[in-house]
Amino acid sequence: MNKKIDAEQCLDEFLKDEFIETAKHHSFFESQKEDAAFVDRIMENIIQAETIAKSVRTNMPPEEKELEDIVTPLYCNTPENHNLIKENKPMKSKKVLVAAVAAALCLTSATCFAFGKIASYEGHSHWVEGDFPTITKMEQVLDVRPDVVENFSNGFKFTRYSVGETASKDENGAKLEALPRLSLDYRNEKNQWIALSICGVFTGQDFGEVSGTITLGNGESIDYYYAKDHYKFVPGNYEVTAEDQAAMDAGELFISYGSNAVEDCYMTNLSWIKDGMKYTLCGQDLEIDQAGMVEMAKEVMSQK
Amino acid sequence: MDQVTAVLQGQKGDKDSFRFLVETYQSGALSTALFLTQNHYTAQDVVQEAFVQCYLHLSELRNPAQFKWWFYRILTRIAWRKKEKDGKAIPIADIFPAKERELDEENHSSSAKTDVKETIMECLEKLDVMYRMVLTLYYFNDFSVGEIARMLDVAEGTVKSRLYHGRQKLKEKLLQAPDHPEKITNEEEVSL
């Protein structure tokens, strides 16, 4: 055992030395040496870029400036909303559902709130009806080429997509970081929907506990996070049962008062991080178990 | 001038201070970009764009002491994007004609050392950029697994996995090299 560890450390140290030596002495790296003009070129580029950036800001059309004012928040995953759900205070079903979707897209919402300076997420998006977006289009939105599928082998087919932005905010509501988001909507013959949401990872974002690991054909291992949350919308006179209470205590059930009748909603989501992007498969009242979701994730992961 | 002061001054728009940061990091950044892209022109583009983006967004850096990590995060993302756009890297063999490489090898006093460098470069050239990125950041830039994970926005387990597979490939190649160093010759002892 010790021999193995020694050999591993030995190879580690050897590679550290050799990478540095390679950069210092390999002919491939020689053109960079003594190139003082390179620094000047970088500084010239910086001055040009700064000038262009100032010019663009000054000449920005008014309609672009107004965009932020007209967008409708889609993901209002605030601690206040979450507490309303937890404290069983009346809340409109639609609002709760939005919070539920937001919580699902946020992987493990409880830890998101507790971690770092991020207190909430807020975003906007608009749906685009029509053909499956081209890879170039998706790359323009996300700045990277994502893994996507048009149809899943279990019958879910692409229907529409949305582009938008999600921002992390601190406890005072100040925007910390904003990242572009692309969501693809799929439906099956039973009209069940599932969304594949793709967004970057926020600084300080926590993902909770890993649910499992998916190994791809090329040997790459990718951790995934799976959750199935039960949301129950109930009338104001609804009395919480012992079973409800146990599920709530276990963090498996969220009850919201204010609907006309008892409505159950199960939000399932499976997320993973690949090549710097967070992918989330999220669906409502799906007839797919964890293994089925993993298979769908695999189909997406294997696209590149 | 220290790095933190340079960042703070740079955030106020002081270009001389930012130039200090460029001078400090450009050499290492270019080597990193060369490891990642395997192409001189692309590497220079990556480094220039990384510094430009860095300058334009410097005010967003909340902890000046983390400049190095932040800068390399930007650089690796740009390198990744350029790699995706440019497609397959140009093989070293196409950049340096065989004759030139032979002469270069002859000029080196230690053929064993040259072989190791050649092996490392050839192996990196063949590796997928995601493995190359992790190996370079870990072995050349000396970032920890945790720092790389945060930089690439992947789980630490993913970094370890990529490091493992990349290192396995390097190990195999190095063991096949005719003049590989003694300390990694005993394959039975090397268990990563």
Describe this structure in words.
The complex is a heterodimer of chains A (304) and B (192). Chain A is α+β, with helices and mostly antiparallel strands. In chain A, 36% of the residues lie in helices and 29% in strands. The two termini of chain A are 38 Å apart. Chain B contains ten helices and no strands.
In short:
Chain A has helices at 2-25, 36-58, 62-65, 67-70, 79-86, 93-105, 109-114, 135-142, 242-249, 290-301; strands spanning 120-129, 157-169, 175-187, 193-200, 212-215, 221-234, 253-257, 263-274, 277-284. Chain A has 304 residues and is α+β, with helices and mostly antiparallel strands. Chain A has 2 domains: 2-58; 79-301, no CATH class.
Give the topology, please.
The complex is a heterodimer of chains A (304) and B (192).
Chain A (H helix, E strand, L loop, with lengths): L1 H24 L10 H23 L3 H4 L1 H4 L8 H8 L6 H13 L3 H6 L5 E10 L5 H8 L14 E13 L5 E13 L5 E8 L11 E4 L5 E14 L7 H8 L3 E5 L5 E12 L2 E8 L5 H12 L3
Parallel strand pairs in A: 6-7
Antiparallel strand pairs in A: 1-2, 2-3, 3-4, 4-9, 5-6, 6-8, 8-9
Chain B lengths: L2 H9 L3 H23 L2 H17 L10 H20 L5 H4 L2 H10 L3 H16 L2 H12 L4 H8 L3 H21 L16
Helix pairs in contact in B: 1-2, 2-3, 2-4, 2-8, 3-4, 4-9, 7-10, 8-10, 9-10
